[in-house]
Structure formats: structure tokens, C-alpha cells
Here is the input.
Amino acid sequence: MKNTKILLAEDDVNLGNLLCDYLKAKGYDTVLASNGDEAFNLFAKGGFNLCLFDVMMPIKDGFTLAKEIRKINETIPIIFLTAKSMKEDTLQGFQSGADDYISKPFSMEELLARITAVLRRSMPQQKEEDTHLFTIGKYKFDYQKRLLSLNGKEQKLTSKENELLRLLCLNQGKMLERTYALKAIWEDDNYFNARSMDVYIAKLRKLLNEDDRIEIMNVHGRGFRFFIHE
Here is the structure.
């Protein structure tokens, strides 16, 4: 599908390059990672529509990677690639959040068919996440214009405020993990950036304080939950 970006994680260099080149030839914008940790860091920067993960990888295996991604994005499609075909491993894959599972060796045509099918099922959620206009209680938020509006009064947001508010809106009612937000916006989860993010959270609370139904709650050691209470 046009404008689809795939995150491919495969530690076998030859297979990884082969799959990456094939998917690019088929029109998919594909980014290759050689291990689970690298894949998570790439995912945190955002913009992906589908994940294609080998199960057996160094540093962080595919199951662990999928579980971590599911904590921050419940809808992105995940397909596992594995040399294993035992029933227990298949079950573990789906328990980790997989949408599909394909065992090696497989044909490129089969892989392409699986990707197409999973994307077709997931497109309604993807389109919803691509929106740039949000209603936050009494407020209107335009991500593209970086504007927060209330009763006709507009507030221009800084780049960091804009990105952080969008992540909160996309994860409304769910956990926004600190590490994910830091890597997605600041590209590093070091102590200095973490303190900077806390300052921006405080600024957003102040900007949204004219509607007392809105709450940005700290979850100690994990991140934030964004609520609009009824």
C-alpha cells in the first residue's frame, strides 16, 4: 500500500538486506534494524505502519520487542518471522501481540500477501492515528498549525509542546511511557532530557487548566496518563 513504512528487524545480514530490498522494490518504505534494541529505538522515532520482526535476535528478542511496543502502541500491525514452527512458539508470538506469524523458509510472494492482508485489516486504526485535529475537552488542537484554541483564543505551541501534546492525545486514557516519549521527541532518554520533559508537561497542564476535566497524571517510574473526565 502506498506511503506505508515498515520496520524490519532481522539479525541475519543477508536475509535482512534481501527482504529490505524486495519490500522497497514493491513500494514499501522499509527500514532495517539488526537487533531488537536498535529496532525499538527506531520505532520510538515514529512514523511506522507495520513491524516485521525476526523472533531470535541478539540483545532483545522479537517477543520481548513486541511486548514493549504493545505497551506504547496497541494497534500497529506486527508480523513475526521465525525458523521455529512449534505450536508453543506460535502461541507465545500471539500472546506477545502479533497479528500474524510466518515460518522460515517462506516465499516472498507469501510474505507480501501476509503484509497486504494485515495492513488491510489495520487501516481504519492507522487513519485514525494520522489525524492532526484533536478535541481536548473545551479545547481544539491543530497539530499541523501548532495551535491550541479555546473559545476563539489561539495559543501558538512550541515544537516540543506540540509533539508532546500530540503523543498524549494519541494515547488518551492509556500509558504514555517516558522512555518512548523521550526517544520520539528528544531522541535520547538521558536525565537532562527527562527533566526537560517534566517542565513541558507542567507547561501543558497550565495551558489546559481552564477545563478542570483534563488531567495529565504522573505514573511514578513509568510515564503519564492523559484523561478527559466526564
Notes: The mean pLDDT is 86. Residues 5-129 form a domain with the Rossmann fold fold (CATH 3.40.50.2300). Residues 109 and 115 are 10 Å apart (CA to CA). The first helix runs from residue 13 to 25.
